[in-house]
Amino acid sequence: MRSRWLNRCCFSGPAGRPAATRAARLRARVRRAVQPCAALACRPRAAMFACSAMQGLSIAIITFNEERNLADCIRSCQDLADEVVVLDSFSTDATERIAREFAKVRFSQHHFDGHVQQKERAFALCRNPWILSLDADERLSPELAAELRALDPGPRVGFRMPRVTFVMGRAIRHSGWYPQRKYRLVRRGHARWAGENPHDYLVVDGPGGDLRGDLFHYSFQDLSHMVRTADSFSSIQAVNLRARGQRFPRLRAVLKPVVKFLEIYVWKRGFLDGFPGFVVAVQNAHSTFLREAKVHELSLGLVDRPSNLRPDPKVVARS
Fold it and tell me: Where are the domains of the chain?
């Protein structure tokens, strides 16, 4: 069909110009128009992303003994990025070796003195206009990766994404744990880390938007790991509360864990998450009790800080 169209165009041209010459020139124009599109289609995903409205992406990850998680985290996002910045706090396992196996990874190390401080350092190491912050135990879902690949940010400087946490192999979509939308994709220079360790968050300076794809969060290896995490986080929270002059009302220590369980399991419909939802509610109540009890322990002067913290009282122990 294209040949017939070309012939018609050629024979209707100015008199005296050979038809074959006119046809050759027109075919050459068609080839020149098609070649850029074909080249774009053959480019790898990262190049296509870099040529979209969002120019240049860095992935920022902080680590400590993340040999179980890091490779899967990087694989889920590396096709989108120009670089993956891994800032490690001197891991004692195979984290460094695993990180260096990936060509796009830029690996650095710095002593850990808090989640907020370490993530700010990771941001400072990034070279591109856009930064996606991930924890090592997080993965981009295929839907979220596709959404990021096609994203046109326009005037927005940050994007929140829903995060779904897995407990005992089940995605927890109630219990107050979902969607937990958090800013993770930000334009460089328009966001900063804030919060109280270990609960950090990004503050965005400018208009933001929401993405639909889920960020997968594999926070716990098993129930034992879940218990250790709650113990560590309750320690850092107790130290921070005590530093602000928090006292220990016994009635609150008795009632607040009960209220927390009812909040998670009933009010936030944790029962819809099956038995894992019950585990989440019990664990939240337990963590609340530990925090209050540790505030009391500190107020009595029995210890300077809980034994599962590093020497810096702002730093939570990691398991």
Answer: 2-42, 47-159+173-209, 223-299
Whether the predicted pLDDT of 11 surpasses 70: no
How far is residue 4 from each of residues 10, 13, 14, 22, 266, measured CA to CA in Å? 10, 14, 18, 13, 72
Helix (H, G, I), strand (E, B) or coil at 42: helix
Cβ neighbours for 234, distance < 8 A, ≥ 6 positions apart: 287, 288, 290, 291, 294
Is the pLDDT confidence value at 3 over 50?
no
Report the chain's C-alpha Rg in angstroms: 27
User: Has residue 313 got a pLDDT over 70?
Assistant: no
185, with CB counted inside 10 A (0-12, 13-18, 19+), is: buried
Confidence of residue 128 (pLDDT cuts 50, 70, 90): very high
CA dist 116 and 125 (Å) reads 15
Write the CA distances from 280 to 174, 178, 234, integer angstroms: 10, 13, 15
pLDDT at 240 (0 to 100): 85
Give, as one character, the DSSP assignment of residue 214.
P
Residue 261 in this model has a pLDDT that exceeds 50 = yes
Structure tokens belonging to residue 58: 């860095």
d(CA 298, CA 143): 46
Taking the CA of residue 26 as centre, how many other CA atoms within 13 Å lie in the half-sphere pointing to its CB? 17
- The top-level CATH class assigned to 47-159+173-209 is alpha beta
| 300 has pLDDT over 90 | no
C-alpha span between 306 and 319 (Å, rounded): 15
Helices (H), the chain: 2-11, 19-42, 45-50, 70-77, 95-100, 115-125, 142-149, 223-243, 250-262, 274-299
Q: Do 67 and 93 touch, CB atoms closer than 8 A?
A: yes
DSSP for 122-185, please give it: HHHH--SSEEEEEETTEEE-HHHHHHHHT---TT--EEEE-EEEEETTEEE-STT-S---EEEE
Which structure tokens are listed for 17? 């110009």
List the end-to-end C-alpha distance of the chain, in Å, as a whole number.
68
